[in-house]
Amino acid sequence: MDPVTVRFRGLCTHLIANNTWVRGAPPLNILTGDKRRVAIRTFIANSALIGSEIDNSKDVPVHHPAIWFKNPTDEAHHFFALKPCNDSDWWTAPLPRVVLEFDGVSPQPANINQSFTRLPSVWSLTPQMYNPMPRLDALNGFPPHAHAYFDFVSGFSIDRIAEDEVVVTPTFISNPGLIVRAGNTANPGPSIPVNGPIEIWNKPDPPCCSKHDYLLHYFPTTIDLKTHPPEWPVGQIPASTSSCSPVKVVSPEVYCSSSGYP
Questions:
Q1: Residue-number span of the structural domain to which 100 is assigned
Q2: Which of 93, 151, 154, 243 is least buried, going by the fewest C-beta atoms within 10 A?
């Protein structure tokens, strides 16, 4: 049986409680709904707010969050209404607006591997004239700017794998489960048994890398993206898929995939 892990593909923003490797990143008091401290909150932006929250001249496409299970349990099938992916062992469904957390993990501190600290950081890429302070409701609530969270409290290691993806490996001390909350509330919600890898995708539609996708990383912050969005330095790279034209971006991971705390 494959180990239980979660792999993030696409545009996900990692809010880090104690980011000691990016200059200027402040400590964050991130809390679950029942007031436990979160080490890392992976924030999935709600791109349905692009039209109301981002300058209309920026070409930010809608992103479609999805959850994937390999060899899902019956409980996962029922809760998420999973559909098969071709003839593989993977099943998928749109990711609802929820807060996720593993159940049954060790209370030991997290292990943040060096590969993860080398991810490009939104904080360091933000021009100095801006001050991207976190929204308080992104730290201890569930604002409309969030489509979903995946909270990691303890007992996990986190790595950057390949060039633009992050994987979290929990250490379980009891049967692995996935807690699903309808928002960042004290209500624990159901714990769904899991027996294999999970993936969270947040890919654009169409599947092209826009040079302004990075603005979604500012949804957990107080920056006004409607009238004064930050501009990042650009450089030419190939398109993210063969069907899309090249665009000017810093790198595929900061525009089209995971990055550090903004």
A1: 6-256
A2: 243
| Alpha carbon distance 40, 26 (integer Å) | 14
4, 172 in Cβ contact below 8 A? yes
Residue 120 in contact with residue 168, Cβ under 8 Å? no
Structural domain count of the chain: 1
Residue 255 binned pLDDT confidence (cut-offs 50, 70, 90) = low
Nearest partner of 99 among 219, 213, 222, 200, judged by Cα: 200
Using alpha carbons, list the distances in angstroms from residue 110 to 130, 169, 245: 31, 10, 40
Residue 78 lies in a domain: yes
Q: Sorting pLDDT into bands at 50, 70 and 90, what band is 12?
A: very high
Write down the H helix ranges in the chain. 50-53, 74-80, 114-117, 122-125, 136-140, 252-256
Residue 262 maps to a domain: no
Residue type for position 190 = P
Decide if 23 is inside a domain.
yes
Indicate whether 110 belongs to any domain: yes
pLDDT at residue 210 in the model:
76
The string of pLDDT tens digits covering residues 153-191 is 999 999 998 767 899 999 999 999 999 999 888 888 899
